[in-house]
Amino acid sequence: MVSSPAIRVDNLGKRYLIRSDQGAGYLTLREAVYAKVGGLVRRAGRPGSEGRSGVEEFWALRDVSLEVGQGQIVGFVGRNGAGKSTLLKVFSRITEPTTGRVVLQGRVASLLEVGTGFHPELTGRENVYLNGAILGMTRREIGAKFDEIVAFAEVERFLDTPVKRYSSGMYVRLAFAVAAHLDPDILVVDEVLAVGDAAFQKKCLGKIGEVASEEGRTVLFVSHNMAAIRSLCTSAHLLDQGRLAASGSPDHVVDTYLKTVTDAPESAESIRTRTDRSGDGTATIVSASIGDADGAPFISEMSRIRLEIAYEGETELMNGQFSATIYDSGKEIGLLSLNSEAVGGLPERLPPRGTLVCVTDPIGFTPGPCHVNLSLLRGGIKADYVRRGITFDVIETDVFGTGKTPDRDWALTISRHTWSLES
Known about the structure:
By secondary structure, this protein is α/β, with parallel strands linked by helices. The chain has helices spanning 29-45, 84-91, 124-134, 139-153, 168-181, 198-213, 226-232, 250-262, 269-272, 340-343, and strands at 7-19, 55-68, 73-77, 99-104, 108-111, 186-189, 218-222, 235-240, 243-248, 277-278, 283-292, 299-300, 304-313, 317-318, 320-328, 333-339, 349-350, 353-362, 368-378, 381-395.
């Protein structure tokens, strides 16, 4: 007899209502109802005002269908905003789907983001028992697991301290220990583990494998660490703009994801047809591409970048100058300037058509989205300028081998370095 799946998802959709007024955010249910009723009243009193509700729809998830078998470790990957965390919140019963249905077999424990799941005023000890009670466990059942939880979390000294005084690392250690040890049937883990130190991250990944293989529990795992997805998961799914873009083996899904993040939407021939450019037009950038100079399928933290720019001019380019500035796409802060005049190497006369190649040293960017602004000067006069000529993502690869790579909330750049005790 074939066992029923631990999770079944049929045509799942999640819609949010967003104010279209500038500066407004998401609507609560009450606000949405008031807005709807108020709009009806106003329209009744003002003929011709139909259709101006001031509310827009945003679908975080759309038409998602999948099954997860018992005892599987399933990874979810995708760009920021792809819908991964929203999907886990639906699995965790934190938010309800707008369309479709989700069937979950058994108790669910979630570790989604720092600050959720624990009551800040309660001590670590009290929160362990509270979480167990929420899962439907008796006090005796929780007590039987208590010492194991405390030992795993390494917070013995702070058990009777309110968790609001915990560091983020302590909080995550205890939260994961509770979620993993209190016998849920389904364990849901978001990228929150990145808060912990490298040794504890490794310990958590080992525990995830143990609860699935030895205890038969199902694990849903979101991570930007592609190495962990490949080594830990039995299957994976790629989400893109709220829809399933790929499903299957971890290797297949990760390779598909890495290809999508390195396929620049505004590269190659699309640059030729861009109309939002500036310059006198006596020479133009017709295509551009970027990649890892050593042949890797994606750009990572310490990649050497290879940039190719093809151009066309009416005549020979005298004193042609090319530049490419790489920006952090979230903060719009410049990360790296590549300028042909600054480093030299180009001849004074360039042919009317050609392709230039620029290769960098290791870039030292923290993981995240980037874009490249491209510029061509001819004799000191701007001939062409294309903003966001290329977009790409820097992929996290555990470059230091410690399981701990700073993200862009900490810094935009990193460097290989060492620490030692001198005295």
